[in-house]
Amino acid sequence: MGSGEIGSPCITGATMPPLLLVTLVFTLSALAYWQGRRRAFALMVRPAAVKMHSRPGYYGMLTALWCALPALAIVIVWQLAAEPLLTSLAMKGLTAARDHLSPDQQGLLINDLRNLVAGNATGREIDPLLQAAADRYIGMHQVSNMALAVVALATAVIAAYLVQARINPELRARNQVERAIEILLSLCSTLAVFITIGIVLSVLFESLRFFQKIPFFDFLFGLQWSPQMAMRADQAGSSGSFGAIPVLAGTFLISGIAMAIAVPLGLMSAVYLSEYAGPKSRTIIKPLLEILAGIPTVVYGFFAALIVAPWIRNAGLTFGLSVSSESALAAGLVMGIMIIPFVSSLSDDVINAVPQSLRDGSYALGATRSETIKQVILPAALPGIVGSILLAVSRAIGETMIVVMAAGLAANLTLNPLQAVTTVTVQIVTLLVGDQEFDSPKTLAAFALGMLLFVVTLVLNVIALYVVRKYREEYE
Prior knowledge:
Layout: H1 18-45, H2 56-96, H3 103-118, H4 128-165, H5 173-213, H6 216-221, E1 225-226, E2 241-242, H7 245-276, H8 279-294, H9 297-318, H10 328-338, H11 340-352, H12 356-364, H13 369-380, H14 382-398, H15 401-406, H16 424-432, H17 441-475
Antiparallel strand pairs: 1-2
C-alpha cells in the first residue's frame, strides 16, 4: 500500500472476533455444567454413596457460572479499556510531531485514525504519519485480541477446574447459585435505573443549554412556535419564536381524539371477548384486533392522508364547514384505530384475571351479568385497565408518522379538530433534521421539547398510580 492513498486496513480476520470468543466461553461453560453435574452424580452413586446437599444440577450450574462469569468480566473490561489505550499509544508519535494542534484538531485527527483503521476512508490522500499510526494501532489491536482470547479462555478453564475439584457433599451449591442469580437480577434492575437516569440527564443538560439562550417562561408559556433561525445575522428572521403552548395543545388535541376512539372501543371489545364471546368467536376476533398493532405506522399514515382526510374534508364541505386538507381529526381517528389493541388486549387479560369467585358471589346475590360487569368485574380490574389506558396514552403521545402525514407541521394554537396542528414528537424530528448547528436554539429546542414531554408523561404516570392505589385498597 502506498503512503499517499488509503487502502482498507480493517482489523478483521487476523484475530479472534469478540463474538466468537464469547461463544467459546459459553461453550466451555456448557461443558463445565455437564462435567460438574456428572461429578455430583458420581459422588451420589459411588459404592460408599453419600447424601449431597444440593441436587446435581446445582453443582453443574455452579461450575458453569464460575467458568463463564470471570471470563466474561475480563472480556468486557478488556474491550472497554483497550480501545482508548490503543488509540492513545498509536497517536503518541503522531501528536508528538504536532504539538501545536488544539484539542479539537487532535479529536479530528483521532477520528481520521479510526476511519482509516476501519477502512472507511478509501480514495483519499492521507498523511504518512497517520498511516503509520493506523498500522501501529492494527498491530497492537491484533496482539491485544490474541492476549484477550488466551487470558479469557484460560481463566474459564482454570475456574471451572477449581470449582469442580471442590464439589463435595458439604458444598452448598444451591445456595451459591441462587445467590448468584439474585445478584444478577439486582444488577439488571440497577442497570435499568442508571440507563433511565442517563437518558434524563442527557436531555436535561441540553435543555439547560437551550434555556440559556431562550428564557424558560417564554418557552413554557409562549403562544407562537416558529423555530426557524437564520444562518447569518444579516438575514431576515434571525430569531425564532419558541413558545411551546401551540405544540403541546396540538399533542393533547390529537391524543384526546385518539383516546376518545380507542378507550371505549377497546374496553367494550375486551368486555365482550371476556364475558360474552364464545370460544370460537374469541379465537377469531382477538387475533384480528391484535393485527392492528402489527401494521406499520406509515401504512396508517397513508390511510389517513389518502382516505380519511379527503373523506373528512368532503363531509365538511357538504355541511358548509371549513376543513383543512390536513386536520387533527384525521390523525386522531386513525391513531385511535391503531391503539385499540393496546386497550383491548391488556384489558381482556386483566378482566380474565378477576377471580371467578367474585362473579359467582355476584350471581348468587341475584345480580345480572351486566350488573356483575359494572359493579364487580370492572372495579376489580380497574388498576389493570388504567395501566392499559396509560400505555395507550403514551403510544398516542409518542406517535409521529401519522401526524406528519395527516395533521401536518403547522403549529396552530387551536382546539378546532378540523384545522392542521402538530405535535411535540413531530417537531423534535423536524428540528433534529436540518443544517443548523448543534448548539443553535433551533436544534436545542428539540431537547427542551423532549424534557417537557417527559414531565407530562411523568405527571400522567403519577395520576394513574394514584388511581390504581386508591381502588386496589378498596377491592383487596
